[in-house]
Amino acid sequence: DLSSNNFEGHLPQCLNHLTHLKVLDIFNNQLSGNFPSTLTNFTSLEYLDLSSINFQGTFSINSLANHSKLEVLLLSSGSNMLQVKTESWHPTSQLKVLKLSDCQLHVIPSFLLQQDHLKFLDLSHNKLVGNFPICGKMDDGLRSSTSLEGLDISGNIPNWIGNISTLRVLLMSKNYLEANIPVQLNHLKSLELIDIFENSLSSKLITLDLRDNKFFGRIPYQINELSNLHVLLLRGNSLQGHIPNELCQLAKLRIMDLSNNIFSGSIPSCLGNVSFWRE
């Protein structure tokens, strides 16, 4: 584990001799240059984290074809100068965690058809084109998944999302959501975290009803960006902390229910001064 240091230059060739290495984590360093060919020899790897590194050029993921024990693969470009090629990769391993973020993929990798044990998949920030998914078999495989717990589909929203009953983490930032949050989210009974950052909800959303779920944490101060909100229902969750003053800036709000949570502190005095409650 050499993660989160300030190592520079290239991955040293002497690592070729570590043929029994099971875990290699060089996340968040200043390494640069072409993708290290030395990784081809690490066929005992089970965990490989190469994310947030400034590798450049083109890397064919097929060089990991003999890594039959690999379960976790984390790869992202810190400089957006790396292009990962996946077309010819037919992994002999069953991955549990896969991150290919900022890798200029452009298309969804076809090898995902054979990955039945995935629990977390991140394909964000790849400028994917076409429908999601682009292959019907992959669609069937993911929609019936019984193990997937985390899914980052930033930039894409499949209509079968509500069928993955095991999903605990859903990241769907930077989409084009407008008036409605997808109704399929009602079926995600295991959901613990949802991220809808950088959408267009603030322009058109009128009703936000999240009653009787298991949401926890604080009400985000960005709530004031939902400028057209008329109804805000957060009853029956585990929200905590202070009630934000930003709620007073929702000029069109008429109904708000924050009951049955675990808020602390004082009720914002500004709520008693806003005129729209009395209209």
Automatic annotation (TrEMBL):
Entry-linked InterPro entries: Leu-rich_rpt, LRR_dom_sf, RLP_Defense_Trigger
Record key words, sorted: Glycoprotein, Leucine-rich repeat, Membrane, Receptor, Repeat, Signal, Transmembrane, Transmembrane helix
Main location: membrane
Superkingdom of source: Eukaryota
Bilayer disposition of the protein: Single-pass type I membrane protein
Cell compartments where the protein resides: Membrane
Cellular-component GO terms for this entry: membrane
SUPFAM superfamilies with a match to the protein in the record: RNI-like
Record-stated family: Belongs to the RLP family.
Protein's name in the database: Leucine-rich repeat-containing N-terminal plant-type domain-containing protein
